[in-house]
């Protein structure tokens, strides 16, 4: 074998080794590329999952805040309604007390007598008892005694029962009527 053959054979071996090395390098490169893509995909998916979870958490917080805000507005509205109802009731009480003051202090016994009778009938209808103890103001005792029988009879007709026994308490009386000076100190 001469030098040219040896050189040719060495070059052939070098090409073979180089080709093997390039193939191995390509394999390594393709394998590394695949691993990189898999790793990258896993990282991207993990970050997407984190972002979705964070978004869902923030969305829940927004929903909770909306519910709290709605609840607060609803409560504020309810308070306004209750306050308005309270104002109406207060004004009705004041108007009724002024009207009662006018009715009880005027000398029109007929109107006041009818009012007392109607109040007694209304109480009897509420109580629905066969026997009651009635208390009134000392000033109204004679008027109450005058309307007692007709009130008991009217109640009996409305309730479809026998007239109740009504005993007027002569020991304990309701507080005296309001005057114009103390009309704001109601006994309610």
UniProtKB/TrEMBL annotation:
The keyword Ion transport applies. InterPro entries: ATPase_E_C, ATPase_V1_Esu. One of its GO terms (molecular function) is proton-transporting ATPase activity, rotational mechanism. Keywords: Ion transport, Transport. Gene3D superfamilies: 6.10.250.1620, ATP synthase, E subunit, C-terminal. GO terms for cellular component: proton-transporting two-sector ATPase complex, catalytic domain. The keyword Ion transport applies. Belongs to the V-ATPase E subunit family. PANTHER family: ATPASE H+-TRANSPORTING V1 SUBUNIT E1A-RELATED. This is V-type proton ATPase subunit E. It comes from Glycine max (Soybean).
């Amino acid at each position: 074998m001469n030098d040219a053959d040896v050189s040719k054979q060495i070059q052939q071996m070098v090409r073979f080794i180089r080709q093997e090395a390039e193939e191995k390098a390509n394999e390594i490169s393709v394998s590394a590329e695949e691993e990189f893509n898999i790793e990258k995909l896993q990282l991207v998916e993990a970050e997407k999952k984190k972002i979705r979870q964070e978004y869902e958490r923030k969305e829940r917080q927004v929903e909770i805040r909306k519910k709290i805000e709605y609840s607060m507005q609803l409560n504020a509205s309810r308070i306004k309604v209750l306050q308005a109802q309270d104002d109406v009731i207060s004004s009705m009480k004041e108007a009724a007390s002024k009207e009662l003051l006018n009715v009880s202090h005027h000398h029109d016994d007929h109107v006041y007598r009818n009012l007392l009778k109607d109040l007694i009938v209304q109480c009897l209808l509420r109580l629905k008892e066969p026997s009651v103890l009635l208390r009134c103001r000392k000033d109204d005792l004679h008027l109450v005694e005058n309307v007692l029988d007709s009130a008991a009879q009217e109640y009996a007709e409305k309730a479809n029962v026998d007239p109740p026994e009504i005993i007027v308490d002569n020991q304990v009386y309701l507080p005296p009527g309001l005057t114009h000076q103390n009309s704001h100190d109601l006994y309610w």
